[in-house]
Amino acid sequence: MPEVENINPYGGDRRSKDRQVQSMFDNIAPAYDMMNHLMTGFLDRYWLRCLVKEAAEVKPKRIIDLATGTGDVAFALARRLPEASVTGLDLSEGMLDKAREKAAGTGGARNITFVQGDCLSTGLPEGSADAITIAYGVRNFADIAAGYREMMRILKPGGKLCVLELSAPTGKLTGAFYRLYAGKVIPAVGRMLSHDTRAYSYLPESIAAVPSGGAMLSMINDTGFVRARYRRFTFGVCTLYTAYKPL
Q1: Nearest alpha carbon to residue 241 among 43, 4, 54, 76
Q2: Which of 31, 43, 105, 115 is in the most buried spot, having the most CB atoms within 10 Å?
Q3: How confident is the model at residue 152 (pLDDT cuts 50, 70, 90)?
Q4: DSSP character string of 90-117
Q5: C-alpha to C-alpha distance for 70 and 98, rounded to whole angstroms
Q6: pLDDT higher for 160 or 199?
Q7: 149 φψ region: left (φ > 0), alpha (ψ -120 to 50), beta (else)
Q8: Confidence (pLDDT) at 1
Q9: How many CA atoms lie within 13 A of 160 on its CB side?
Q10: Which of 60-74, 101-115, 153-167 comes out lowest in average pLDDT?
Q11: Contact by Cβ (8 Å): 70, 98
Q12: Does the structure show a pLDDT above 70 at 108?
């Protein structure tokens, strides 16, 4: 199994992974929210609530939501923590356009700012966040370790990291069902709804290759985070990792 950093959305395309990921999300932005709900049986809403609850525990005043996509995590954080400022950062302007449309459709979100940027080099000030969240974004990084180093840099001492990522079940029956569903059903539905022939084939490929459980904790710990732990959801198809920057 190749490392997830070496798995690209468009195979033989010679562009760098970050450029391919950017193009992929620009392409699938109109169908992204619907696909998330359908392919998870709407369980993504429960996973989102768990992520927001973890982030809210430290009562953050400044939150950075990396790989914010269409803004669902940022909106949920802003509702839960109306006194906090939330910055949603994403590489894809197509996804950010959807986030801004959603903000306008709800009368705006005065405590949210959406900005285009690279999660591996955000340009945000050092120690500028009380909490960092990222949902379904780490496996798309061209360099996961570099991504965690950047998160460490922009967190303030004592700040909390919350990472929600898809993962592959390892049980005999659940693993077999998941491989069938992720390998056949999701790509077929994704091609039909998103009109991108590769995006939802790349999805199960990247999920299968991304470090999970203890392997992901090791990467987080190697960056210098402390009190790292993880919690699996729904037979292991999604995992929530939390950790803190040392004081």
Answers
A1: 54
A2: 31
A3: very high
A4: ES-HHHHHHHHHHHHHTT--TTEEEEE-
A5: 5
A6: 160
A7: alpha
A8: 54
A9: 20
A10: 101-115
A11: yes
A12: no
DSSP string computed for the chain: ---GGG--TTTT--S-HHHHHHHHHHHHHHHHHHHHHHHHTTHHHHHHHHHHHHHHTT--SEEEEET-TTSHHHHHHHHH-TTSEEEEEES-HHHHHHHHHHHHHTT--TTEEEEE-BTTB--PPTT-EEEEEEES-GGG-S-HHHHHHHHHHHEEEEEEEEEEEE----SHHHHHHHHHIIIIIHHHHHHHHH--TTHHHHHHHHHHHS--THHHHHHHHHTT-EEEEEEEEGGGTEEEEEEE---
Question: Does residue 182 contact residue 207 with C-beta atoms inside 8 Å?
Answer: yes
Contacts of 99 by beta carbon, 8 Å cutoff, 6+ apart: 68, 69, 70, 71, 74, 88, 90, 114
pLDDT in tens, 175-212: 888 888 888 888 888 888 888 878 888 988 999 999 99
Q: Determine the Cα angle at 69 with ends 89 and 181, to 5°.
A: 145
Pairing outcome for strands 85-90 and 62-66: parallel
Amino acid of residue 188 = A
24: left (phi over 0), alpha (psi -120 to 50) or beta: alpha
Check if the beta carbon of residue 44 is closer than 8 Å to that of residue 110.
Answer: no
Q: How far is CA 14 from CA 8, 93, 99, in A?
A: 10, 21, 29
- Taking Cα atoms as reference points, which of 99, 92, 47, 95 lies closest to residue 78? 99
**81 alpha carbon, distance to own chain's centre:** 20
